[in-house]
Amino acid sequence: MWRTCFSVLIAVCIAANACAGEFVIRDTEPAVGSHINRMKLGSPMPFDKRYDELTPDQRKLIRSKYINLGEEDEPPYPESGYGDVSRQVSRVQEVLNIQGLLTLTVRVNAAGEGVSVSIYETPDERASQAVAFAAMKVKYKPAKCAGVPCEMDFPYSFNFTLR
Known about the structure:
The protein is an alpha+beta fold. The protein is about 35% helix and about 30% strand.
C-alpha cells in the first residue's frame, strides 16, 4: 500500500511541475469520473518548435547536454520539434504500461538523417525498439561544427511512469 501511495505522490508532483511551466500533452478524453484530461507527457521543451524557434533559455538547456560545443557549434535537433517522437512514446506507454527510464542517443549525420541508435538504459526491450525506430524516422536539423554541418549524437530521455 505504501508503495502505491508513493507512486501517486510522484505522479501528482510531476503534474504539478508540468502546470508550473513545462509543456504538456494531455489525454484526449478525461478518465471515468473526471472532467480533467490527464497529462500524458510533460517536457521542459515545447513539442512543436524547431531549434531556431526555441528561446535562448531553451537552447541553453539543449546545449547543456553536450560537453564540448563551441560558441559557433549547434547540436542536432528534430526538424519539427519533439512532437513526433513524443507521440510515439505515448503510444508505447499505452500499450506496454511500463515504468522506468529510457535513455538513448541517435547519431545524426551531416544531412540530418538518423544513422544509428545507442540505448543506454531501458525499462523494457520492446519500448526501446519502438522508440528507437521512431527516433530514426525523424528528420533532424543537422549539427553544426564551426558553422559547417557535421555528424553528432542527439540524446533522448523518457521517464515512463504508471498512473
